Amino acid sequence: MPTIGFGTWQIPINEHFQSTIQTAIQLGYRHFDTAQIYNNAALIGDVIRESGIPRSEFFLTSKIWASHRSFESAEDAYAMILEQLQVDYLDLLLIHWPAAQGEPMVWQAQNAGTWRAFEKIYKAGAVRAIGVSNFLPHHLVPLLARAKVKPMVNQLEIHPGYPQRAALRFCMDHGILVQAWSPLGRGTLLRHPTLEKIASAHGVTPAQVALRWCLELGIAPIPKATDFHHQKEDLDIFGFELTPEERDELTLMPQTAFSGLHPDTVTF
Ligand SMILES: NC(=O)c1ccc[n+]([C@@H]2O[C@H](COP(=O)([O-])OP(=O)(O)OC[C@H]3O[C@@H](n4cnc5c(N)ncnc54)[C@H](OP(=O)(O)O)[C@@H]3O)[C@@H](O)[C@H]2O)c1
User: Which residue has the least CA distance to atom 7 on ligand 1?
Assistant: First the structure.
């Protein structure tokens, strides 16, 4: 999996959409994070097909939305995703959010059913990796107890100011790779004095500091950038290293730029 992915949520669907994806591909992004709910898979599929770059060079992720979170409908959702992206396999398929409302026996069974469908798709060789998103340890424990194939990835909101240390530790202990969604706190983190101070010490930008912090913690970030200069900057994080003190300072920042989306309280 290319370490830095390209987030595609809320890229405005207008006359610039396709050129945003085109410039990302030209700059070297090959890992695209998509989801059923983003409603842009067909447009992304068009750009990838028209790029002339072989499908095998891309790493494509999608996520099953709550509406298809069951054994019965997950396979249909997967077929729909492939059709929209115009590909015959995905590199990574995730359950977008855990079912976590109401009676635990009920939501645990719902996640387990969706996971059985994922295992079926994986064992048939129709997807290269399967995983989850927004699963905290108490969602993962019942899933792991029933799973025949362990989730390979967990995509979580992670950035300085919201490090999710317990979930990260749990995933690392279970061999689950963590990806960071909103690694820049949707942009709101980038004027934080701690990030600005560390950025100026290294002659880089706060965005690069936030992404580098992810890498150094063993987390794969998926920033979104529509601006060409941002896209370029977000790939250029391999020329400096944070000191252990800087890394700790970022990890221990008080809660900042949290999206407010907690898996146990969202309504989907
Ligand atoms: N699994 C989930 O539940 C979940 C939830 C949310 C998001 N995601 C995924 O994670 C991806 C990233 O998260 P996100 O889109 O919420 O937020 P983000 O990547 O944290 O932040 C995006 C914002 O940062 C700005 N930005 C990007 N690079 C920059 C740079 N170098 N300097 C200054 N500003 C910069 C962008 O501006 P411009 O656009 O103007 O360049 C945009 O406003 C999403 O696109 C989606 O694929 C997953």
Answer: 181
